[in-house]
Amino acid sequence: MNYWLMKTEPDECSINDIAKAGEQGVLWDGVRNYQARNFMREMTLGDQVLIYHSSCKTIGIAGIAEVCAAAFPDPMQFDSNSPYFDAKASPEKPRWDAIRLRFVAKFSNVISLEALKKVNPLAGNPLVKKGNRLSVIPFSAEEFTAVKALND
DNA sequence: GCCAACGTTGGC
DNA sequence: GCCAACGTTGGC
């Protein structure tokens, strides 16, 4: 079992949207960063994922989801009508991956970035570093537990 | 809306 | 392989 954090703009896909998707979960596509993609390829079924709302009014971790489909080629890279289209990708040589995420829990309150910066095990985590742009971040069990504890 | 930080691209 | 230019991210 691995732990991760994934960023999303809640206008695009919020923790509520994931909850509404039910058992089959949501398609997590559009990741166009190699480091983030490589992390997605390491994900296995049942991995726990903290859902982080960015670029919005209430920034922070909103809940937990789990991986319900491991990495597969992101269909949007082949769709010339999609903003995620990549002319350099082909079905024979896909470049980008997607996963699926299923709802696990919504926190009673969004755990704010300000609060996260005060969590000891998170010191040094890219999430709380200025200028960080990584949208998929691996978490240790200790980091995950410390975040989850803030919801209790 | 601003702007610092960052990743990617492309000329050389 | 370097690095300037550019586009994007993301907090404020």
Automatic annotation (TrEMBL):
Annotated EVE domain residues: 2-147
Natural source organism: Pseudidiomarina atlantica
Pfam families according to UniProt: EVE
Cross-referenced PANTHER family: THYMOCYTE NUCLEAR PROTEIN 1 (PTHR14087:SF7)
This protein's name: EVE domain-containing protein
Classification lineage: Bacteria, Pseudomonadati, Pseudomonadota, Gammaproteobacteria, Alteromonadales
